[in-house]
Amino acid sequence: MIRYEELTKRYRDHLAVDRLSLRIEPGEVVALLGPNGSGKTTTLKAAAGLLAPTAGRVLVGGAAPSRPDARAILSYLPQKVAFPESLTGWEVVDFYRKLRSVDSGRADEVLRFASLNGSSGRAVGTYSGGMVQRLGLAVAMLPDTPLMLLDEPTAALDPIGLTAFYEVVDAAKERRRTILFTSHQLGDVERLADRVAILVEGKLAGVFSQRELAASLGERGVMRVQTSRGEIAITGPPSNRPRALDEIRSGGVEILSLTIEECRLDTLYRELVTHD
């Protein structure tokens, strides 16, 4: 569905994306994970046809994303959404519905999905940040496209919006729609993604299944055991910890306390980029 081939994007002296090669298969949900400034948004915009690569290329459905036939099969939610504050939520959705030639009944449907039913008649200028983000989600849901590109979709969502968003993605997965979304939240990945592509400083540092990512983080965790003879640090997955504690006790050593330090994503980022 999406093919990145040695994608490179440079803004003057800043290299935003460096020779990215990645395939997103039809019906797959893939998360672009990485710290701020890692190239996630640039990568997504390249697939949406909103910027031209400095080198390499991106194909969407086998075509350049700047072509109308490629854009017709995708829906895009930017990281920061903004709408005319004098328009109501319903008017915003109806405007974009007409742009995408969508049936009139779809507007009410997406507003319900985004939990804006009670507020769709109010001016956007009265909306909270979370409500504006939910309105953006409603707009992105309008066309029934096989591909959705979502840039930090949960960053500004309130709990109601987060629940609505998860329902949207679950429904899309049931219909085998392809979703590529960016995030720096591990919770989003655990809940939604089939695969995770990690970007660090514009480079693809690793591609993991959800299970592989959890295992990779687990193996880097540390259990620190304070004993009557000093501290013992035990690294490795959580499954190793009970056996390690049994061995300490069997040696006649008194355990005074213990703490668990699970691996943070930023630690994994640093390790991946250090090992290139």
Describe the structure in your own words.
By secondary structure, the chain is α/β, with parallel strands linked by helices. It folds into two domains: 214 residues, 3-Layer(aba) Sandwich (Rossmann fold), CATH 3.40.50; 55 residues. Helix content is 36%, strand content 29%. It is built from ten helices and twelve strands. The strands form three sheets. A six-stranded mixed beta sheet has the order 5-6-7-3-8-9, with helices on both faces. A hairpin with a 2-residue loop joins strand 8 and strand 9. Helix 3 packs across helix 4, helix 4 crosses helix 5 and helix 5 packs parallel to helix 6. It is globular. It starts with a strand and ends with a helix. The relative contact order is 0.15. The model has no long low-confidence stretch (mean pLDDT 88).
